[in-house]
Amino acid sequence: MPASSSMSKHHEFARCLESSHISMSAPFHWLALAFKDIANAPILSLVYGLIFTLIPATIMYFVYQFDTHLVILPAVVGFALIGPAFAAGLYDVAWELEKGHKPTLMHSLKSMFRNPAGEWGFAVLLMVIMIVWMRLAALIHALYPNVVNPSFEQLSAFLTLGSIVGGILLVAVFAISAFTPQIMMERRVDIMTAVISSINAVKTNAGAMIVWAGLILCLVFVGFITGTAGFIVIMPLLSYASWHAYIAVIKTKKPRGYE
Asked: Transmembrane ranges (predicted)?
């Protein structure tokens, strides 16, 4: 095989899709569109919302079951890691609404298998990162003071290192997962193309992505302080908004005709 042909295929395998430049206020527009999607597909949104709520509810169960706050930090990061892998069904609902179709549960479930190799590969990637985080969290836990009521000063090393490591992982996962599932679902491309394109899009729109990440963290926080009940609405809302974010940021050669 000629070298040029080999290089061409390699470039096709891990190419980078172009991204648009968006304003820092764009995330608020995505949320507004997401509210419209919920209003247009309330039953499907409720079904997926209930399913999603089982994840944080399980986290809270373990917090109370083991009667310790030490599981909260790794659990919240773990939730942020695995969440994007389960949103494909809701992306399909938003996509169907944009195309003027009536979304159905069966169609949205089938959408999870539009790009099985890429989607499973992405799920495995997130799982590996989650396992790494859990191992790091266990090591960081060794810094926790071996006293009954530790002071803030005694906790400082534990909290500082945990926050730094968790923050680095969250930033990395956010850049990787911001657009990867949506790209693989619509384009059916390989996982490397999707991941590289997602990272590039986040870097290109750093300001808007910081605002978007802040909104996500705030909504996730609201979900937890409501005893996870808020996730029934929050998870569909974030999933729909993430789809609209993808439509706004990742370019296509042929205009889609919707946002």
From this structure: 43-64, 70-91, 120-144, 156-179, 206-225
Q: Which one-letter amino acid corresponds to residue 227?
A: G
Nearest to 16 by CA among 255, 227, 195, 203: 195
- Give CA–CA dist 115/94, Å, rounded: 18
Rg for the chain, CA atoms, rounded: 20
Q: Are 198 and 178 in contact (CB under 8 A)?
A: yes
Q: What is the tens place of the pLDDT at every residue in 62-73?
A: 767 766 666 665
Tokens of 48: 């997926």
Lowest mean pLDDT among 2-11, 13-22, 92-101, 229-238: 2-11
Instruction: Indicate the pTM of the whole model.
Output: 0.79
Mean of the per-residue pLDDT values of the chain? 82
Whole-angstrom distance, CA of residue 129 vs CA of residue 124: 9
Q: Is 16 left (phi over 0), alpha (psi -120 to 50) or beta?
A: beta
